[in-house]
Amino acid sequence: MKRSIIPVVMLVAAVMLVACGDGSPAVHQTKVIAHRGYWKAEGSAQNSLASLRKAAEIGCYGTEFDVHLTSDGVALINHDDDIDGVAIWKNSYETFTDHRLANGETIPTLRSYLEEGAKYPDFKLVIEIKSAPDPAHETRSVAVVMDTVEELGLREQVEYIAFSYHICKEIVARDPSATVVYLNGDTTPEELRADGIAGLDYNIKIARNNPALFGDARAAGITTNIWTVNDEADMRELISYGVDFLTTDQPELALELTGGNAGQAE
Ligand code: MG
Q1: pTM for the model
Q2: 69 CA to middle of ligand 1, Å?
Q3: 15 Cα: distance to centroid of ligand 1 (angstroms)
Q4: pLDDT (tens digit, 9 = 90+) per residue, 74-116?
Q5: 134 touches 71 (CB < 8 A)
């Protein structure tokens, strides 16, 4: 059974109702991020270019996607750390070029994915740099990803997420202005803020077990994102707490419940 986080509702609601100049309350708008793109759409597949386009076309704030680095330094878009049982980080890009996604696409490289995303300039590209067994490989991944972003002129359109705290700190060290959000759920908002990390992006189970999280994050001045929220009741509950972002495999439902992303263009 879910643990109720009702006791924080009144506190959070009070914080959300920031008075506008005319005395009317400003309504907090939860933004929707498609998890691995809008991959449930027809003709789509997880982490495909089609999933990016479809998430952008329905009005998501952005799409999350996963990046691994091959042994020869090519950043690939794939969730698992292997493809058909072959470890990405220990093998060359050439090893994977014949693989096809469920919709027939080849595996996108980071460059091809970002170039596609650049066609939707108001749409955020939320790059998850995946952990690797070797911290040096993680450091190399960060360098390749951030150099590619820089070459394409997309610094303002990307955000970074990672389970590895080493990766988060490497990104901040390279660009203190980058938006970096931590995934692993084991650090307090105050510690994240102190390390220059812009937000937390935690599993919904952690949100349920730590209902004070939202107020603590707000007090620390960092953003909140919860993954992977696919259930309507969970979405409604989190929206009521003023969560900043929902990461979901059901972006159309989330957009419906949040009232879309109107007025959020940055
Ligand atoms: Mg991911």
Answers
A1: 0.89
A2: 14
A3: 30
A4: 999 999 999 999 999 999 999 999 999 999 999 999 999 999 9
A5: no
